[in-house]
Design a protein that fits this description.
Layout (H helix, E strand, L loop, with lengths): L2 H11 L15 E5 L2 E7 L3 E2 L4 E10 L5 E4 L4 E5 L4 E6 L12 E4 L4 E9 L17 E9 L20 H12 E5 L3 E2 L1 E2 L17
Parallel strand pairs: 3-13, 7-10
Antiparallel strand pairs: 1-2, 2-4, 4-9, 5-8, 6-7, 10-11, 10-12
Amino acid sequence: MTGKPLLLAMLMVAGCASSTVDRDEPRRLLGRESDVRVDAQMFGNRINPGTIVTINYEIQNFRSEPIAFAEGPATADLDTSSRTITVRIGAEVPGIPPLPRLQVIGPGEKKSFTTGARMNFLIPDRGEQLSNYPQSLRIRVNILRGVEPFSMLVGPQEGTQAPNLAEEIFPAWVENIESVTTNSIPINWGRPIQMKTTTPPRRGRN
């Protein structure tokens, strides 16, 4: 099966997690680049170190061709100069098996997903200055503009376990990768909880 029939079959087997982004939410995140739109919603205003932040997001494809997206756990890192957390979705690249499963988003189609990102990164230790802590958050979603080179990663196929597949598709993956970055929203960063220790009193002689 090649060409358009293959793409249609891939679209039929590709699924997605059900989620909804509240478009009336004032803290909604939005990004649009090269006819791909990302709407996202972060739950909670306060972020504590080491916790997992839940994010609902939607990817809408305005192109005339399908795009692919590696759904999976998100990662988070901190730009210390701008004090901005970037949550990276779909950033997984082919490595050792198993390889990432791909979702296909057809022309004019929109799909919704839910993910979580652990806020576990190094913050420079400069004493107790509040200016060191993160103050904003944004989302960056990676997509693949070509689908056919990665058809073996779509749907319930066994190709993701092939030991040489990662090396074979890596050049095409790098060539076809794009990203959509949303606006930044302010966050309230919580300090790590300091556990106080007390020394038990000495017992005197009776």
